[in-house]
Design brief:
The chain is α+β, with helices and mostly antiparallel strands. The protein is about 40% helix and about 25% strand. A hairpin with a 5-residue loop joins strand 3 and strand 4.
Length: about 270
């Protein structure tokens, strides 16, 4: 479980990870720029990503000129492409990114959501997604990047209606036939000192991450950390959340409200 604390062993591993990234040949970033990026990222990021991918992400993030930056990272998986998406962090951002990925016909197999403080003091999201094209597989992902960038720019506009955007892209389709999966919502108050851990087990389908992230935003819950995983037809999505005041979900009534809303979202269509 993620508790917000870091062991001495992890600190040593992350220090060695930073040093390994700094040793990689590069032209796009200075040592100071790369060091600032690595120092701004949480320890779990340094422990979970390869040195080559961290360098590729650093180049993309530091050199971002517009509202969003998308980078195709060095391949580590045969079945999926790895994307870095960075943008100014704000409430509801994960839902908007998920909408763009769905609109671009990309299935999310895994996601790691990170946040950092940029050099100008602003908060920035640096998210990593394992994706594949819904019909053409992993080989089609590089061809989807321009479309994804356009879709991200569209959904990041505050005036964009996400349901209308998704209706125009994919309608109410639930995708290909897959085995039934029982939906289960679990709220864990013990696994983290600072966050309520929300676990959603459900049948995977296009737009599921968008539906869940949107519902958490509507509930007034801030997503501090997210781990998305898909195995076959089953999605196991984990969100570390707090109330807007930074506190955990604290009452039985509130927990029942969250569980009921997420259960409904996991069963809804993207319309």
């Amino acid at each position: 479980f993620y508790s917000g604390s870091v062991s001495l062993v992890d600190l040593d591993r992350s220090t060695r990870a930073k040093a390994a990234v700094l040793r990689l040949p590069r032209e796009a970033l200075t040592d100071a720029e790369l060091t600032q990026f690595l120092d701004s990222m949480p320890e779990r990021y340094l422990l979970a990503n390869s040195t080559e991918n961290m360098l590729a992400q650093a180049i993309s993030v530091v050199n971002r000129k517009g509202p969003v930056a998308v980078a195709l990272l060095p391949a580590r998986h045969r079945e999926a492409a790895e994307l870095s998406i960075s943008a100014a962090d704000r409430p509801g951002l994960l839902a908007r990114i998920a909408a763009a990925l769905t609109g671009s016909r990309l299935e999310v197999l895994s996601a790691d959501v990170y946040s950092r403080v940029a050099q100008d003091g602003s908060f920035e999201a640096v998210d990593v997604f394992l994706v594949r094209d819904r019909t053409e597989g992993v080989d089609a992902v590089p061809r989807s990047l321009k479309r994804l960038e356009r879709d991200l720019l569209e959904v990041l506009d505050p005036s964009c209606s996400l349901p209308a955007f998704l209706q125009s892209r994919v309608g109410g389709t639930s995708g290909r036939k897959t085995p039934n999966v029982t939906t289960e919502i679990v709220l864990d108050e013990r696994g983290s000192r600072e966050h309520t851990i929300v676990e959603v087990f459900s049948k995977d389908r296009p737009g599921l991450l968008f539906l869940l992230a949107s519902k958490l935003y509507e509930l007034g819950l801030s997503i501090r950390l997210s781990k998305i995983n898909t195995e076959g037809a089953r999605a196991a999505d984990v969100f570390y959340v707090t109330e807007l005041d930074g506190k955990k979900v604290s009452t039985d009534a509130r927990r029942k409200e969250v569980k009921a809303a997420l259960f409904a979202a996991a069963s809804a269509e993207i319309v």
